[in-house]
Amino acid sequence: MKTKASPEVIRRFQIGVMGSMADLAYSKEFEKAAEQLGEFVAKRNGILIFGAEKDADSLSTAACRGAKRSGGLTVGVTYGKHKNITQQDADVIIPCGLERGGGREFVLVLGCDAIIAISGGSGTLNELSVAYQADIPMIALTGFGGWADKLAGEFFDARERRRVLPARSPDEAVGIAFREAEKYRDKYA
Amino acid sequence: MNNLNRRLQIGVIGSAGPEEYAFEKPNAQMYAAAEAIGGELARANCIVINGGKGGIMKAVCRGAKTSGGMTVAETSGIDRDTANEYVDVEVVTGSLNMTGPSVLVGMCDAIISLGGGAGTLQEICVAYRLKKPITLVPGFGGWTDELAKREYLDERRLMPFAVADAQKAVEIALRLARGPNL
User: Fold this and answer.
1) Reported pTM
2) Which residues contact B19 (CB under 8 A, 6 or more apart)?
3) Does B110 reach chain A within 8 Å, measured CB to CB?
4) Among A16, A147, B101, B144, which is most exposed with the fewest C-beta within 10 angstroms?
5) C-beta of residue B71 within 8 angstroms of C-beta of residue B95
């Protein structure tokens, strides 16, 4: 039987930050914005979910650094079977036993109550397409190019399930993420 | 272990069809194109790989079977007999719609795409990262048409999209699947 979660036990929101990997050669300004996203998630008592890499930095990992700096709890979902990620101060490391570029991405996304995308190549696009299919709220921090800018305000297909919500600052993006995460949690409680 | 004489496994992906959602325009032309592509793949002795459900998936399987081909479907869920009636081999993955694409794409030597929503886009993202050749057949809307306007999926420029009409799509996909050295 489907029951509503007890109101006394409200779980913390799990907010994902996703974006370009370092091989897409983003500037320090991008990294700073990603760190700020992580900081704001931590300050609102959210759990920061990020895609943990083993061979490169990324905007997702930058968000983990921001969250750690603000005393937040961070969870890195990585590919393969070992925990040898670059961001060794992450609180929880989950090797999902799947490869990067498909499998790891859906585990990462399904762990989130909302995801915030910044810039981003094919991996971020993949993650957004999974979030859309799973009806998970998506926020695009605009002004940094990539697929996040291109998809801000858009639906993914004619199903018109959920729009990618645009945000102009990290603060605004995190605010929208928590608002939408709450609605999402209630919808699937 | 490298069996160079093995049959090519070509994935055909795209819109799932009216049982899930409807495009604004009638889909008859898109299905006819998918059926023709399935037939041509069969005559070229290729194995057709797809999701085994409705829409493009059913059309391409019907085309392949009508021409004596072989069809393999990677299906979501845990049950047998969820694939359409033109599927020879049903690979039941135990996955959800959104967690199956990496299995489907991994089985393919090349991909042909028509129409398509978020699931098709996800498959194309996976194929791009795995550098599986992608042939887009535009003209039927969806992500196939949107991506046909671009050369690459991202700035990594890993692999350019091929763009072809339905008549040329199989020829191009097979050439790309065989690679420059074969």
Assistant:
1) 0.94
2) B54, B55
3) no
4) A147
5) no
